[in-house]
Design a protein that fits this description.
alpha+beta; three-stranded antiparallel β-sheet; 4 helices
Length: 83
């Protein structure tokens, strides 16, 4: 099981197009040395590959991840009314 699945972040991303998820200090402490950087990188790669924008922010009680689904809209010209 990956760290993303173990902490629940992967599940949260799959369940919602927009949201936030706190990885607690306790979860971070249980990661191997250097694991937090690897975790953040894996979260970024997972999010991008599934069509999300994601960011992380340090909080007093952990690391907060916020994401939203990115929808690509084709840029079509809107018809103009020449009346």
């Amino acid at each position: 099981m990956s760290e993303l699945e173990r902490t629940g972040l992967a599940i949260a991303l799959r369940q919602s197009d927009r949201g936030e998820y706190l990885i607690s200090d306790k979860q971070i402490a249980s990661m191997p040395i250097g694991g937090l950087r690897a975790f953040e990188k894996a979260a970024l790669e997972f999010a991008i590959s599934n069509g999300f924008q994601i960011r992380s922010e340090d909080k007093p009680d952990g690391l907060l991840f916020q994401w939203r689904k990115v929808t690509r809209v084709s840029q079509q010209e809107t018809p103009t009314d020449n009346a």
